[in-house]
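ok so for the tutorial part 2 we go from a plain amino acid sequence to predicted structure tokens. step 1 is just haveing the sequence, like this:
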Amino acid sequence: MTAYQPIAAPGSELNAQDFKRVAAFIEQHSGIKTPPSKRLLVEGRLRRRARASGFASVAEYCDHVFADPASLATEAELLVNALTTNKTDFFREPKHFDYLTATVLPALVAAGERRLRIWSAGCSTGAEPYTLAMLLDQFCMSQACGYGILATDIDTEVLETARRGIYPAPMVEPVPALLRRRYLMTARGDRAEVRMVPELRAAIGFGQLNFMDPRYGVGDPMHVIFCRNVLIYFDQETQEKVIRRLLDCLLPGGHLFLGHSETIAGMDLPVRTVAGTVFQKV
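step 2 — the prediction. this is what the tokens look like for a chain of 282 residues:
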């Protein structure tokens, strides 16, 4: 059977060969699969990257990037930044946060834990770790305990946005009014933007992490890991490898939260399902 070849549409700047080269690089570097159906999306992002780099066309940009290993190494991080998807919202999939605050956190404190460690893996522009920080701060004030949040992503540009903690005002509308008053302030006098208060920003450590790394050097094991709506971009073999590496960073009895559309069906993992796509390490 002849293998399917993505065909460039009339007027397209991204030909089949360049699409295959880009897709192969992204999968090898980040584990993310890019099917032919994403060609137009890839082309648009490559066009912006080509213009920013001073190239007249996507083809010229691709010829430069893939000309030799040195050129690819120089452009690799920026190319990944351009092609990764960064969909995120505050309080996204709220049932997870309900379960965290009603069940997981009280159980940790009842077991004697006095400093809670949580990792937002694939944090994008920061909505998830800041959501966690608001909830952890509220909980720990009432329980006289401490907390720390690690937030990682492969994309260095979204990490910089997350570190700044500045967002368009409409983006934070899902944040409950009480938490908005406590943790958000007007950004530099611009009422169209809000910024996370300094103490919340200080509670989160941001860093770059590639899920394809053989080990995740995150320091002390975590009590809770959120890795939501990330695995959907990987094939099942890669998904299982990533989950196993995440579990290596999780304390026994710790909780792993995946996205509602993600599944571990068919995987032999040391976890039990406790609620929806919430899993406890055993």
